[in-house]
Each structure stands twice: as C-alpha cells, then as structure tokens.
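User: Please predict structures.

Assistant: First:
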Amino acid sequence: MKLTAAFMLLALCVALACAESKGSPDKGNELFDEQCASCHFAASVDVKVGPGLKLLFAREKLQSNGKPLTDANVLEKIEKGGSRMPAFKDTLSADDKADLIAYLKTL
C-alpha cells in the first residue's frame, strides 16, 4: 500500500511539473517581439538576419545545425545561440524559454 501511495505522489509531481513547463504562447509572443523579432520573421520563412521561423515545428531539422527539430534542440539553440545569434541562457528564465517555445509552436 505504501508503494502505491508513493507511486501516486510521484505521478502527481511529474504531471504538475509537465503542466508548469508547458509555457504560455501569449507570453512567448511578447518575448519574441522583444528579443527575437529584430533578427527573425515570425510570419515568414524569409531570412532577416536569422532564418524566418514560420512553421518551425513543422520542419524536420533546424536549419542552423541540422539537428532534429525537438523542444530540447530548440531550447539548446536559444540557450547557446550560434554564429550571429546571441546566447540567451542567462538572459531568459526557464519560464521565459518555455513560453517562447510554446509560441514558436504556434507559428
């Protein structure tokens, strides 16, 4: 019985953590406008300074490094930057990054 209760508590904690990390597309849109829009188009695939991000999550790979398009790889790109893109690891909070990824999924 104790094992079942412990498992249920663990499952609840995991569910809550997943719900919290989902992110807000609306907040992500605001962040995109503030932090990303000077270099990336949201409503186009055309290159501005960096690639346009329309339909980003419909693509198979990240254009910049060829890695499969996953939340983890997009997060890594946001955190580490690359070539002309600055790193945002210490600039954006974990919640900000989750919000930004949630927004990018709507493009």
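Second:
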Amino acid sequence: MRCCVVALAAIIACGTLFVNGPGTVAGSVEAAALPNHGQIRIEMNSAFTSANGVVGGTGNAADPYVIGGWEINASKTDGILISNTTAFVVIRDVYVHAGWNHTYSGNGYANHDGIRLWNAQNVRIENATLFDNGNGIFLQDPIHVTIIHSELAFNADFGIFGSGSDISVLQNAFHDGSIGFGGGGSGGVLASNNFYGNEPGGIIFDSGTGWTIRDNNFADSHLHGLRLDHTADMVVYHNNVLDDYYFSTSEGATNVSWSAGYPQGGNYWTRYGGHDNCSGPAQDICPDPDGIGDTPLHNNGVKLDPYPLMHPYGLREDPPTATFDATPALTQIGAPISVNASSSRDPDGPNGGVHFRWDWESDGQLDTAFLFSAFSTHVYRTPGRYVITLETRDVTGRTNFTTRTVTVVPVPTPTDYSPLVIAAIGGLIGVGYWLRRRKTRRPRTEGEEPPRKTD
C-alpha cells in the first residue's frame, strides 16, 4: 500500500510540473547598494560630525572632512546642505536622487536640490551621482569649489546652477536633463565635461566674469551648446559643439574670445560649412591647409569663432564599437528579452559618449530613438526567430551596427492529467478494498466441517 501512495504522489507531482509548463528562471546580481542616510544639513564648522554623514578627516587642507558612501533620498528636502563653513570637505561616492516634483501641503510641488552649497568654502565634490533632482548642485555664493568625475542627469532645472568664485567643473557628465550648467560667478573653469541630450542647452550663462570654457563635448543640445549672455572676459576654445540647432551665441557680452588664437584654433562646429585650403593668422597662405577653416564662423552676421576647427578636437573620429548580449536567447511568447550594450565603447572619445538605439526585428525600421542607457527590454507576441540590431553612435556622429538572433516559441499547451490521476485513485481504492476483505476473512481449519443446521 505504501508503494502505491508514493507512486500516486509522484504522478500528481509530475502532473503539476507539466501542467505549469517549463518556466524561465531569471536571476541577476545587483550591485551592492550604498547604505541609506537621511538628509544632511551642515550649517557651521562644528556640524561636521558622524551624525551628519562625516566618515573621516579633521577638516584641514591636508586632511579634509569626508562625507561619502551614502545614498540620500531628497524628496523631503535638499539631499546635502553645507552653508557658512570654512573647513575643507570632500563629498565623494554619494548617490542623491528623487528631489524633483514632490507635492507638499496637499497641493503644489517643490523641487529639491541634490547638493546645495550656500556661502561655503573649500568644498570638493567627486564621483557623485545626482539624478532626478531639481538642480543636481545649487551654488549659492560658495568659494573654492571643485566638482569632478560626477554624473548629473535627469535633473529638472539644471545639472549645476548658481554662481560663486573660483569654481572648477572638470570631467563630469551632464545628460538627459534641462540645462547642464547655468548661472554665473567669477574666475571659474569648465573643462573636459560631456554634455548630451540637455534642453535647451549644455552651458548657458546669464552673467559671469573671467571663466575659461575648454575641451568640452556637446551633443544633442536642443537649442544651444553654449550660450554666453551678459558675460565679460570669457575664453572659449577647443570645445566640440555637435548637432547644435542654433550656433552658440554671446549676447550682451564683452571681451569674449571664442578661440585660443592662431595656430591653437577655436572650436569644432558640425554646422560650420567652410573649407580649409589656406593657413596663417589671416588664412592667406594658400594652398596650405592647417586644420582651421579659412573663414570665420558667423552667427547672424556677427563673427563668433575666428578660427573654427575642421575636425573634432582631441577625437580621432573612429566609430564606436557595437556589442551587446541578449538574454535569454530562447524564450516564450510574452516573456521579456533583456539587452545589454554596456560593453560598447568609443575608443577615441569621451566616457559616456556612446548612444544606443534598437531594431527588434531588423526590418530597417529602428524602433527606438538614440538612448543614453545601454539597457533595454522587448517582448515578442508571435513565435519565430528574430534578429535584433543595435546601432551605436558617438559624439562625432559616427555609427556602428551589430546583431544577435533570438528564438521565441509558443507557450506549451497545458497537459490534462486528471483521467490518469482518477484511474490511479480508482485502482488504489480497488486494491485497498481487496486487501481489506482478505485481511478480515476468518481462516478455516484443515478438516473442519461447517456446522450443520439442526431442526
């Protein structure tokens, strides 16, 4: 009897497995999350404490305070506020997010900043990720500030906004937000940054004095790569201004130089239509091309760049690589396929300078716009073999392609095991009844005669 019960359990278990059909086991290893920390408010030197996220340092130039290694949700107030301080501090390895468009008091909304520096001095921000805030960083008259190796994206107002003195913004990525950098101030440097997909532009000054803007890349700016209004004593050179809808401008500005002089040259503009046949400060030594346009770049009749470059500065103009994984390669109708193109690179361009778009059926009709993210998913509704095409594009507009093939199969029809299970149960009931009758029947003794009926 026990063996029959075991067999029945196995049949039922097998029936359950097949009725459900083969499943897709999805697993991923997520990057270790930063520990959460509440909003940080430091409004005097004495507030640099462990309770306010300080993890090291003594506050002098050789050993600055360190605020680092935290994830901060800015939905209730600014993520990190430092004001009225003179101590040296480094903010590093922080992820501050969710400060944009949060309701308050039942109506209206508030935009909170990722990091706000208010009358603070000697602050260095490095390797910070500032997503989905009002401003990624708000500068309210700080002095001696460096922002380096950080990513500012999806912020509603600006990546960095405000004004200050001695501000250095170096080697950061500003993308998919409103304006990358905006404001004013004096004596600053904006160098070696990447600006992509910002609307209406990458850098927009409404005031400012004595800034140097060099070696930056601008792509997919909806209006202006650079706009310098009401500024003075600005130097702008060796920037790559790509896909600029309007030529960048300087209105109401005085003493703004859009080049480093000859032969260093000015900036590269994809919309410049001039030729390079000559050389010299006056471009009158011909024929002798020198990599600089023979005629200045004009904007609405005003000379903007006297020495426009014919090729992107610092870029060899090689196309990006195009590689991706598609998982799973075999799946069912309605199950998502994930693609990961993060291994694609621009060998001669800036980090973060590759955009991606996808054709899920390779029918020549690309199904997405160029995306900053290397990750996407797609669901197929009919079975078949599909070829997925990835197109990559770098900041110079050069592209590359690659493909992967995936197979989509129908969802298996559920198997009905109920007749088999019912038959097995019926058989077991019959066997049990037979065993029970055999066990309960009284045995007969050899030679014994049945009792006779007497009158």
